[in-house]
Design brief:
489 residues, alpha/beta, 6-stranded mixed sheet, 14 helices, 19 strands, globular
């Protein structure tokens, strides 16, 4: 048996003023053929799981094309065309294969294409036809569309947030592809939709945890293949934005429908439980200062680069500097200009800078800062988080600045903080600090929950604010809860 694997991964925040270009993809990944196998072997991600599953099962695996960019604004038409051309040519060059396994996101938007994934799947089907099994892995923040359901044989969503089960979904994709090829599996898929948007919600806490447990119960039913709760991505202004449930059964459409509708009903019953408890940076810091066990981790959810924000927001950092803190660290703010200046001046220098706030006005004004340059690095490390463990990261020129009792990390490439590696790179052991602040919504929890005494989420104006009702949705199909009063029939 022979399979081809590929990936096009982007979570699009359509409210961002930063268009997503080919250059932004190339900053993270733009690979072909054997480059894909080399880059993802031994890595806990979707493609890493597919590669390992194929090798374990004696299946020949061929890489077609892999591209991923950090979440940002709408993908340009030129970039979309390049992505589609590379994907199709890579699949064609793979030659005769028995199945296709694709790693997509589910919340991609390009100029002229509200549904990036649906458009790519349709193009693949036009090229290869409908006789070959096509299995797709997706992020749980996917906005699942009719076209995605029609073009794929199976859509497999990750169950966990933080997404520590991407590797397992990759394994499962190949297993199911093999079962389809040998005739053991005839998938039937059903999507249940809800007029509902929810904020980022970790799955190790209720209510998302309860819904996942109900999904798992359905998956134990004879004939069931998968049952996934897709949270949707609330920062994408498209008509089909919203919560969905996708269930897959073996040659039993009615079973898939019953499972999906049952979970959808449960989600609707619990819809009010998703309402976030919102604290300002000042309120969060007051709680942290009053704590008696450390470290206290404060996550700035409203400027989460993992959701398409600029990563140079200053609301939390400014509050830290005004709070007269000691033994506190902040990791990290995106500001390549400041990082470059620090590298030019060197360790031991004192520099005067305007830090952050350079992308837009929403995430805060630049901070006028006089700081001591404590350490410099190239920003390179290997991910230790269970989410993507083993993957290399390059944040470019990076620096540890000290101002008062706060250590501030500044990097040249934006990303959310997944683990403590960027701190360790600059000599900071987060377990020895009282207050550790970072930019992320939920993914950081995979690494920081085991080593923190308390986690406090703070919110402020930003492109990933928990108060998504503040956005001016123009294309969203209405009514939708909680923006509108909704009665679901």
């Amino acid at each position: 048996m022979r399979i081809v694997i590929a990936e096009v991964m982007h979570e699009t925040n359509t409210f961002s003023n930063v268009p997503t270009t080919r250059e932004l993809f190339e900053l993270w990944e733009w690979a072909r053929g054997d480059e894909i196998l080399a880059a993802h072997s031994g890595v806990r991600d979707f493609l890493g799981g597919m590669i390992d599953a194929a090798r374990q099962r004696g299946i020949e695996v061929v890489g077609a094309f892999a591209a991923s960019a950090y979440p940002s604004g709408t993908i340009t038409k030129e970039t979309f065309d390049s992505l589609q051309d590379e994907l199709l040519s890579g699949i064609a060059e793979a030659g005769k294969v028995d199945a296709i396994c694709l790693s997509l996101h589910g919340a991609g938007v390009a100029e002229g294409f509200d549904d990036l994934e649906g458009a790519l799947l349709k193009a693949v089907r036009k090229q290869v036809g409908y006789d070959i099994p096509l299995i797709v892995t997706l992020d749980l923040h996917g906005n699942i569309t009719d076209e995605m359901i029609m073009e794929a044989d199976i859509l497999l969503g990750v169950h966990l947030y933080p997404h520590t089960d991407c590797y397992e979904r990759g394994l499962e994709a190949v297993e199911l592809a093999e079962r389809m090829v040998v005739g053991e599996l005839l998938p039937r898929m059903y999507r249940a939709t809800l007029p509902l948007i929810i904020p980022p919600s970790t799955t190790n806490l209720s209510p998302a945890k309860d819904i996942n447990e109900a999904c798992y119960k359905w998956e134990r039913e004879p004939g069931m293949v998968d049952c996934a709760f897709f949270h949707g991505f609330p920062y994408t202004d498209i008509p089909e934005l919203g919560v969905t449930v996708v269930a897959v059964a073996n040659n039993d459409y009615d079973l898939a429908k019953r499972a999906a509708e049952d979970i959808a009903n449960l989600i609707w019953e619990k819809r009010e439980e998703f309402a976030p408890k919102v604290l300002s940076p000042q309120e969060g810091l007051a709680l942290a200062k009053a704590a008696t066990k450390f470290p206290v981790v404060i996550n700035e959810t409203s400027d989460n680069p993992g959701g398409g924000t600029p990563g140079d927001g200053t609301h939390l950092l400014r509050a830290m500097l005004e709070a007269d803190l000691q033994d506190a660290c902040f990791g990290f703010i995106y500001d390549p200009e400041v990082a470059l200046l620090a590298h030019e001046k060197g360790v031991g220098a004192t520099i005067e800078v305007q830090l952050g706030g350079k992308t837009d006005n929403l995430h805060g004004e630049p901070i006028a800062l006089t700081a001591y340059v404590k350490s410099l690095s190239d920003g390179k490390f290997i991910t230790s988080s269970p989410m993507g463990k083993g993957s290399p990261v390059n944040l470019g020129k990076s620096v540890r600045l000290q101002a008062g009792g706060v250590d501030i990390l500044v990097c040249s490439v934006k990303t959310q903080v997944l683990d403590e590696q960027i701190f360790l790179l600059h000599g900071i052991d987060v377990t020895q600090f009282k207050i550790v602040c970072l930019k992320s919504s939920q993914h950081f929890r995979a690494s920081f929950e085991p080593i923190s005494a308390q986690i406090i989420t703070v919110d402020s104006p930003g492109l990933t604010t928990l108060l998504f009702q503040s956005f001016d949705y123009k294309r969203l199909q209405r009514p939708v809860y909680p923006i509108d009063p909704v009665t679901r029939t």
